[in-house]
Amino acid sequence: MLMCQQKQAHLPGESGMASTSKVALITGAGSGIGRAVALALLARGYRVALAGRTAASLAETASLAKAAATQTKAIVADVTDPAAVTRMYAEAVAAFGRVDVVLNNAGTFGPKALFEDITPEQWNSVVAVNLTGAFLVAQGAFRVMKSQSPQGGRIINNGSVSSHVPRPNSAPYTATKHAITGLTRSLSLDGRKYDIACGQIDIGNAATELMKSIGVSGAAQANGTSLAEPTMDVENVGEAVAYMADLPLNANVQFMTLMATKMPFIGRG
Known about the structure:
Elements: E1 23-27, H1 32-43, E2 47-52, H2 55-65, E3 72-76, H3 82-96, E4 101-104, H4 120-147, E5 153-158, H5 171-190, E6 196-204, E7 219-220, E8 226-227, H6 235-246, E9 255-259
Helix pairs in contact: 1-2, 1-6, 3-4, 4-5
């Protein structure tokens, strides 16, 4: 299983296993990027609310972290359901007293289909998770961070390199990730008066279970071919988000692009 061990690779300026009293909430924490970030934050002493759709995968994330039972709280929640998102925050606050950092991470790639064959139902299902879900999670964060004492916190949106340049036949996913950039900018502006900072990380070719095929069977290219692309360890994402999360609220990484160095992103046709 991916992420069986957490490497201690740290960004410049980090002191290693720092201790913190911060509380983080991560959506999509049961696998992939969400799991990698959860492990990185737990290793730094964060208390982490692990949110996702299946209890078993959240329990596995907590087990991999080898964290104390009081350091994690598993919350089964569907980000497309407003009532579930409200309940998610209520459970997190009940467990830890506040929320300092939210990783707005839950998402879906959507259908692999020609643009002209995408159904309205397929389009709406991607928008519901990637955009409406991100809105609901961010709105819930605002409500908690505005009302808590000390006031404020940080929202980190998981964008994508597709928020800059699309892959072929990815209109629903690409459109929602472009929209996340607009959401990030709006949250940054609207959050200032509450000491709420918002940034976005755009990730390219992290070797999660969902992305494993890119490094083996390949990914569709603009010229109609399929090409196996370089990938990077997903733990790099965990370290990068931890760096963003650790900043004081008077500093913010507005946008970060983290990608496999040799992936064909720079230079796309």
